[in-house]
Specification:
The protein is of the alpha/beta class. It contains ten helices and eight strands. Helix 1 crosses helix 10 and helix 5 crosses helix 10. The termini are close together. The structure holds phosphoric acid mono(formamide)ester (CP). Phosphoric acid mono(formamide)ester binds next to helix 2.
Length: 287
Amino acid sequence: MKNLFTLDELTNQEILDILNDAIDFSNGKTFSLSGKIVANLFFEPSTRTEYSFVTAEHLLNMKPISFNKASSSFSNKGETFLDTVKCFEAFGVDAFVIRHSENEYYKNLNLSVPLLNAGDGTHAHPTQCLLDLLTIYQEFGSFEGLKVCFVGDIKFSRVAHEGIKTMERLGMECFVSGPNIYMEDDYKFVELDEAVKVMDVIVLLRVQNERHGEGDQVEKSSYLELYGMTKERALNMKKGAIIMHPAPFNRGIEIEDAVLDLPQCRIFKQMKNGVFVRQAVLKRSFE
Ligand code: CP
């Protein structure tokens, strides 16, 4: 049994092995985990991660259970997170996929079956990072020497935090750009208008309003002009460079509508790749 809490636990070779498996799935490979029941417990909202996991589970002949937080005893009767998870363990499920707003929520769970982290607070989102890497690998054929800039709300982004450290150890050079209040000292800053000229990959990020406290908000009306990907900026991008975004994206804030139709845009390709990497990590859970 193999958990997947963060990509920190994996060697570079293990990450590449998962990506190769995902590529095989993208090319039509089939694999069966017939009859295994997987509990998808999303304590935070999700569209892409939850339903691409469910799609991957169906493709692997698994039996998915989707937890309805709104009607649960967790939301309505005071049951704790731990007791909710233990309840599904008592049912005899074979694996868990869990998203939670608390960083490292998985630390005190001690489950007897594999747990795949579908995002924890501002800390990690390993399957998002894997699908981002797969999208980059499909485009460039390697990682070494590529320049990537994460743009926007870095401070509250699990996608940026896990993405930057993983991409750097795979040989990519990572930068950040965006409003000052969302920048962190650990990272190399570059102005967006400069970034678009030299980066191979621009990763736009949503402003994570739901994680903000007092004083963390920025002015929406000027965001696109100052920090967003406009068609004009996209046209200044280096030849061969691509635009990514984990989504959901806010049209007219971090991305101009017209950018979604540009040939540099890989956002829907990322969503498609989400199914393949989740097939690969589910398969790995039972190896
Ligand atoms: N990218 C991502 O995690 O999207 P969801 O929140 O819709 O799962």
